[in-house]
Amino acid sequence: MSASLFATSDLHVSYAENRTVVDRLRPESDDDWLIVAGDVGDLFGDIERTLRLLRERFTTVIWAPGNHELWTHPSDPVTLRGEDRYRALVRMCRDNGVLTPEDDYPVWPGADGPVLVVPLFLLYDYSFRVPGVTSKEESLKLAYEAGVVCTDEMLLHPDPYPDRESWCWARLDETSSRLDATDPALRTVLVSHWPLVRQPTDVLWYPQFAQWCGTDRTADWHLRYRAAAAVYGHLHIPRTTHYDGVRFEEVSLGYPREWQRRSSDPAPMRRIMRSR
């Protein structure tokens, strides 16, 4: 039996219904890999327990952080903020054998040739603004007036950077330098919690929320970095789309009130590729 590269995201294990779903996640073969594209949970301990559980089941687990992992939640005994929290999450993953954006990118032996699996931590910079609006300030003002404000504004601290967009730009510079140095003969699976292109946000019920969903600076990364597939979450709208001939997979589970409208028995693990 061939092995599979699976992906999931937005498990949000603070909800009992979601923990039940996660408990059912199992590989189909002993050699299956699992991508976890962020938003495992809100609390450090919940994130660690879940990733450890998944690593016990899958031969390789690859994690990219979402915004919820980076929150400094008032009920979390781990009070680290910003970059310090991210680095602590990376150390925790390494202690549990989970790969992160700070590790060497693993090579998946795909049926159509090997691909580099690239977990990304990029954040967002408010450039997915409300249509027709040119400034971050005006775009945020419209979001607050509509009552559509991401909780990141209260809980995702950018320390030591002055703001989230500065942290985003630093991550973009660091990550693009690493990607520029990869083997140009290898195709990639790009894994980011936030979509690399803006188009997926066009279907949001509340377009004001798009400004917390990515950055225009990655609009060509799926082409520039030879993506065979791009995996993301965050939007809680699981689907497959194609942009410039590249397959984009939104692989989120989401909140119970969302997935229960779609299915009483969700299957949040999407097959991205098969091995030889």
Describe this structure in words.
It is a single chain. The chain contains nine helices and ten strands. With 276 residues, it is an alpha/beta fold. The chain has one domain: Metallo-dependent phosphatases (Purple Acid Phosphatase, chain A, domain 2, 4-Layer Sandwich). Strands 4-5-6-7-9-8 form a six-stranded mixed β-sheet. A four-stranded mixed β-sheet has the order 3-2-1-10, covered by helices on one side. The longest helix has 17 residues, at 164-180. It starts with a strand and ends with a strand. The model has no long low-confidence stretch (mean pLDDT 96).
Number of helices, where a helix is a run of at least 4 consecutive DSSP H or I residues? 9
Structural class: alpha/beta
Q: Approximately how much helix is present in the residues?
A: 25-40%
- Mind summarizing the main beta sheet? 6 strands, mixed
- The number of strands is 10
Task: Describe how the helices and strands are arranged.
Blueprint lengths: L3 E5 L7 H8 L9 E4 L7 H14 L2 E4 L3 H4 L11 H14 L11 E2 L6 E6 L15 H11 L5 H4 L8 H17 L6 E6 L28 H4 L2 E6 L6 E5 L2 E5 L5 H7 L7 E5 L2
Parallel strand pairs: 1-2, 2-3, 5-6, 6-7, 7-9
Antiparallel strand pairs: 1-10, 4-5, 8-9
Sum up the structure in keywords.
276 residues, alpha/beta, Purple Acid Phosphatase, chain A, domain 2, six-stranded mixed sheet, four-stranded mixed sheet, 9 helices, 10 strands, globular
